[in-house]
């Protein structure tokens, strides 16, 4: 495949001469670092350059060079954007090597390129934890800007709720710190604005919590139980004690001969006595299905691995593909927030659709994520919108790197059809962490009534629209 075709040649040597990091261009086998594990929909052309910054001054120099040459670019921390916004650009400003992690007096300072799994392990050695998501390879940069939900979220809140201070390189190349006392408008905006393009975050200071052991809970049933479980789950999981964080997943293996199943998974937190209470409550709402539940008590170090996805739902070491990714598969994801439960008819339609017309080499997953708990804390101090939702549903189809266009199309169509079965109950808002380029009014979906204020902040900090991709904020 041809590299992004900006016909004119760029002489990268002046930038190479001043960077601590590297500029990787076509012909250099390290360009494989530009690959991601899954692309959304279409193959991604290799960039004209992957600039690997190692420090804040590197980021400033890179920005200056790209502006001088009027080169379009993306900003990438962990590269896990579902819409490929960080990777589909002629130049990628890559922050993977800005990945330091330190922790002192319960406060963590991390680089945006630090991966959630590495942060969790590093903090665990200090007996601390920060709530993150369930994928160990997501970067702290992207995660802290979109929100960041996960197994500790109903107790402690989002990853972005823990951010105390951000170091940011602005569009004009200047550097600011954003906190409650410094550039408070930018601080408000960044924590929840996701891919909005307000500046490049080069360091994050985060509050942490004492790391405790926890109880992992897992149950697996045939898909025939899915409708009943969805009905029960949506009434109980979003209203459960904040120390109970249980997701429900419908899973269709990539071999249509293999049966689909439904899985309840997550954590029970707190003292032994409190966990015993949570177990009783759970057994009551599950009724006869409770006999298939399995529980594991994890010591703190294992807990730190489980909450970030380094252990799988049954607490075995999770399978993780080797980095760098040599081949790129395809993942189609769409999601919505819901303020109210789904009707029995929608649940029935959703389960039917889940099994319909399965294909060889196509994996499907429907994920039901409980909201409430600490996510619902009234909070005017950040731009994150989705405080009042009850739950989120994510529909995902995954196919391999050698899939045909027809199989990809089929996966995409299934995601659309699955989403359609429940759409009438959705609240119109979408998690900015599940960026979706096929939304008609994506800014409204991500930011709702925060949009106007965010646009004014964009105008103030990036009046020339230097940071732009398909979903950055438009100037007012
Ligand atoms: C497999 C998988 C599992 C996931 N699981 C969860 C989960 O459990 N919980 C959850 O909340 N989310 C989850 N997500 C979503 C994830 O949090 C978002 O996609 C997030 O944006 C990824 O961060 P990143 O740094 O890896 O991404 P990147 O692709 O590097 O960045 C995404 C976008 O954020 C912006 N950005 C990134 N870094 C910076 C920076 N330093 N400065 C300014 N802007 C920046 C850019 O606009 C960029 O396009 C998951 C995603 C995937 C693919």
Explain how this protein is built.
This protein is 27% helix and 23% strand. With 476 residues, the chain is of the alpha+beta class. It folds into 3 domains: 76 residues, Uridine Diphospho-n-acetylenolpyruvylglucosamine Reductase, domain 2; 123 residues, 2-Layer Sandwich (Uridine Diphospho-n-acetylenolpyruvylglucosamine Reductase, domain 3), CATH 3.30.465.10; 221 residues, 3-Layer(aba) Sandwich (Vanillyl-alcohol Oxidase, Chain A, domain 3). Strands 2-17-19-18-14-15-13-16 form an 8-stranded mixed sheet. A 5-stranded antiparallel sheet has the order 6-7-11-9-10. A 4-stranded mixed sheet has the order 1-3-5-4, covered by helices on one side. A hairpin with a 2-residue loop joins strand 6 and strand 7. Helix 7 crosses helix 10. The protein starts with 12 loop residues before the first helix and ends in a 15-residue tail after the last helix. The mean pLDDT is 96. It binds flavin-adenine dinucleotide. Flavin-adenine dinucleotide (FAD) binds next to strand 4, helix 4 and strand 11. GO terms for molecular function: FAD binding; oxidoreductase activity. Keywords: FAD, Flavoprotein, Oxidoreductase. Its cofactor is FAD.
> How big is the Rg?
22 Å
User: Helicity range of the residues?
Assistant: 25-40%
User: Counting H and I runs of at least 4 residues, what is the number of helices?
Assistant: 13
Distinct compounds present: flavin-adenine dinucleotide
Overall number of domains: 3
Briefly, what CATH class of the largest domain?
A: Alpha Beta
Task: Describe the secondary-structure layout.
Blueprint: H1 13-18, E1 22-24, E2 38-39, E3 49-52, H2 56-68, E4 73-76, E5 91-94, E6 101-104, E7 107-110, H3 116-124, E8 128-129, H4 140-146, H5 153-156, E9 163-169, E10 175-179, H6 184-193, E11 200-207, E12 209-210, E13 214-222, H7 226-236, E14 244-252, E15 261-268, H8 272-286, E16 294-298, H9 300-306, E17 329-338, H10 344-355, E18 362-370, E19 391-399, H11 405-422, H12 442-447, H13 451-461
Parallel strand pairs: 2-17, 3-5, 4-5
Antiparallel strand pairs: 1-3, 6-7, 7-11, 8-12, 9-10, 9-11, 13-15, 13-16, 14-15, 14-18, 17-19, 18-19
Bound molecules: flavin-adenine dinucleotide (FAD).
GO molecular function: FAD binding; oxidoreductase activity
Domain FAD-binding PCMH-type: 43-211
Keywords: FAD, Flavoprotein, Oxidoreductase
